[in-house]
Specification:
The structure is a homodimer. The first copy, chain A, is α/β, with parallel strands linked by helices. Chain A is 29% helix and 29% strand. In chain A, strands 6-9-7-8-12 form a 5-stranded mixed beta barrel. The longest helix of chain A is centred in the middle third of the chain and has 16 residues.
Chain lengths: 341, 341
């Protein structure tokens, strides 16, 4: 079997966990759960496989290199952000055609790394057969923030054909999916052979492939770093891999992955992904809680005292303090300019 | 008519509005309501009367002198805190016997200074006749944290004899007082002639008078400052003026004062004393509120963003952040050592 090469996509603008995450230091590079940063944890659970390829922007290169530690990763520095199809194409063009790419966002939490590795091996086995495989995350509620994958025909005991991709549904449809069964969330984790991906990209989005190919051809090596050519790369359409390839190919498959996954897309989901005490509170930093339930505290220094509250998020970071209900945390964007700082 | 001399009692340990107030900078010296500090506002509403006497401890002398501004106050520095009977006796012994002392705590808010001045003049008129006068604060609820004054026989149109002093009652009694009517809260504001006070102290608490007299006799002048003798003053019993004199004298009177009073004894009462916006929020410092009602924010620097909360207090001061329900603010003392910092 060919090698499994983790391709870790690193970037993001860092608005949903503001003010802890900022544009200058987004979610992957913060120790939000446990001692490791989310990026470090991503590297750790990919350690059973080959040395990874990290695709990142210049803005985050410093964080990436500082947190890579002893990992012998190849780093591809995107001249600008052009969404996931182009980012994955960069990595695909730098890898042997028969390598199985294990594409991982760097800003997800996976509580059961063994289950991840098991699912990755199944996905790789399907990828060897020419499938483009999505990881199917167990749909635990009628979430409207995720795409859904409908399971089709079983592919041995490895996974399923993907019968249908569903863009973020409204609540009614999401509820119906749950009731009907056979739907998973699309977690943005994929496996496919590099050659398969490039063939499918050629078939469905030849413009992106052309631009990325030119950017790689005119690129520049610098030790472990690879710099694609900026002007060629700028020509690539900014399109997600879902739109560009996964939803168009006739070889889409999925592997159900039950691995305690969270995209940590909000303070509430971070809270649920964390260890909580008997009162459901989770604390990172100096804090003291009295008569509290379901409270999340995150402080980068000052001591936080919380009394008599339920379901409240308190975040202290630099010169910003955020205090919000769990629900309200979705409205961080309503704050004047806050999420852009 | 003799002069009315404000005697402003300055001190306090600064625990109930922690972490904004600290032992090193208690409530009177903070601009909690509007631009002025509570002490400055106290001075301002006493400005219609004679130059004040400020009784304070060495720990707060720096704040007192910095905030006195152009006021020609006499300052008496207590060698140690010995409660209000001794503090008032210090001032009484330094004043002409016929001066009317207008004793004011320095940590109360009075929203209607004109009503205060009117009540003070009535109280002074009664004091001239030999009465020891308490200001009767309108009892607006069955508060169990205050003493109550029961009105007796009317004294012309100036006030009433005090028929009874009631120590902090339980809720049942407080509710009964409200239903019965004729009760005011004891706000700790008094008026009496210096000579009258000293006679009554002699009659009811001669030990305190003896110690304070010795402390003044052996005291030391230093410009506007007067330093009573420490070892003599240490002998004075630490007893409140209520216990020592007001509850024992047969000449107790009260003047009803309707002056938008608050003792700012909690974050909730500070919130009620402040100007609030249409959603009932009050903010001091940089803050942005979204979907909030009845929220109080106090920040000494960092920007505070609050989303989707009701009846919550957020205080940022130095390296301490307090987030609490209005009720919970009473439990600041439950925090390990917090209130002592």
């Amino acid at each position: 079997m060919s090698q499994i090469v983790p391709v870790i996509l690193c970037g993001g603008s860092g608005t949903r966990l503001w003010p802890r995450s900022r544009a200058s230091k987004p979610k992957p590079f913060l120790p939000l759960i446990g001692e490791q940063t989310i990026f470090e944890a991503t590297l750790a659970r990919c350690a059973p496989f080959a040395a990874p390829v990290v695709v990142t922007g210049a803005a985050h290169l410093e964080h990436v290199e500082a947190q890579l530690g002893a990992s012998e990763a190849a780093i591809i520095i995107e001249p600008q952000a052009r969404n996931t199809a182009a980012a994955i194409a960069l990595a695909a063009l730098r890898l042997p055609g028969d390598a199985v790419m294990l594409v991982c966002p760097s800003d997800h939490h996976i509580g059961d790394p063994q289950a991840f590795a098991d699912a990755a091996r199944k996905a790789a086995a399907l990828a060897q057969e020419g499938w483009l495989v999505s990881f199917g995350i167990e749909a635990t509620g009628p979430e409207t923030g995720y795409g859904y994958l409908k399971r089709g025909e079983a592919l041995g005991d490895l996974g399923f054909r993907t019968a249908r991709f569903v863009e973020k549904p409204d609540l009614e449809r999401a509820t119906a999916f749950l009731a009907e069964g056979g739907y998973d969330w699309n977690g943005g984790i994929f496996a496919f052979r590099a050659a398969t991906f490039l063939e499918e990209l050629e078939a469905h989005c030849p413009g992106v492939l052309g631009s990325v190919w030119a950017a790689v051809a005119a690129g520049r090596e610098e030790g472990a770093r690879f710099h694609p050519d900026a002007s060629a790369f700028a020509g690539a359409e900014a399109i997600s891999v879902d739109y560009a390839v996964m939803e168009r190919t006739t070889h889409a498959a999925l592997v159900p992955a039950r691995m305690d996954w969270s995209d940590i897309g909000s303070w509430e989901s971070l809270h649920m992904a964390r260890k909580r005490d008997a009162q459901g509170n989770s604390v990172n930093g100096r804090a003291e809680l009295v008569d509290c339930q379901g409270v999340l505290v995150e402080s980068d220094g000052p001591r936080v005292s919380v009394i008599g509250l339920e379901g409240v998020v308190v975040v202290v970071d630099g010169d910003e303090v955020l205090v919000t209900s769990m629900d309200g945390a979705q409205k961080v964007g309503k704050l004047g300019g806050a999420a852009n700082q």
